[in-house]
Amino acid sequence: MNQSQVIAFATDFGLVDPCVGVCEGVMVSIAPDAKVVHLNHNISPQNLNEAIFNLFVSYKYFPDKTVFCFVIDPGVGSSRKAIALEFSANGKTQYLVAPDNGIATPLLNHEQVLRVISLDNPSFHLPNASTTFHGRDIFSPAAAQLAKGTDIAELGTLLPKDELVKLELPQPNFKEGLWQAQIIHMDHFGNLVTNLPSQNLEKPLASWTALAQDKVLSPVYPNFASVEIGETVVYTGSSGFIEIGVRNANARALLNLNLSDTVIFAKHSKL
């Protein structure tokens, strides 16, 4: 069997409680050679769109056979399915273990899904699985089994991929020469990520200006160093989306912008 050594683990558990550590303990008990990469445990509670963004900007950078274990699970204990998904991306085969609540949306939209399994084989759950902590009792064991080379089909029942929950994500809109985008993510530094890919903007990027709340924010610059410290800067972020920042400061706090707020991008000639 081909073995994976990497489990990329993301949750909304935070790091105040022992939940993350307990899940890792389960993983390494089953797959002691696995390397658990803690991708993000500060996803906002129950925020599926944020979970989707974290998965979308991450999976391309991990090696073949990586298992992504994403536990953002507001429906834990309900009739929602627990799933494992095998997919092909950039010539690599990878896996996602997650609740079937829309987290798999970016893979369903952008990658070839090979197999989907409902994690309904109790032989691969912890004994006496709880109704409130499937991260420990179902998802961590499944991720560890995949990491040590267990075939995905052993974990449960095959599902048609078109039965999976798929969320409708906000898309940028182009009308009358203007792009209307939304803020979809706010990072640790307070930078604001929009849902507008930079490739959507006609070149040169510097011919576009961002506006929000009836205020002109900034032209689109190459990088932070294009403006002085404390000035607003709009730029292409590392994920390929247009972002809004304030050099060496917190754009979220200073600009009073939040998730789902609208940002307009206009050519200078239209201002």
What this model shows, in words?
It is a single chain. This protein is α+β, with helices and mostly antiparallel strands and 271 residues long. The chain folds into 2 domains: 6-163, S-adenosyl-l-methionine hydroxide adenosyltransferase, N-terminal (Rossmann fold); 173-270, Elongation Factor Tu (Ef-tu), domain 3 (Beta Barrel). Helices cover 17% and strands 33% of the residues. The protein is built from 5 helices and 15 strands. It has helices at 19-30, 48-56, 105-110, 134-147, 251-255, and strands spanning 6-11, 35-40, 67-71, 82-89, 92-99, 112-118, 157-158, 173-175, 178-186, 192-197, 208-212, 215-221, 232-236, 241-246, 262-267. It has a 7-stranded mixed beta sheet, sandwiched between helices. Strands 9-10-14-13-12-11-15 form a 7-stranded mixed beta barrel. A hairpin with a 2-residue loop joins strand 8 and strand 9 (178-186). Helix 1 (19-30) packs parallel to helix 4 (134-147). The radius of gyration is 21 Å and the shape is elongated.
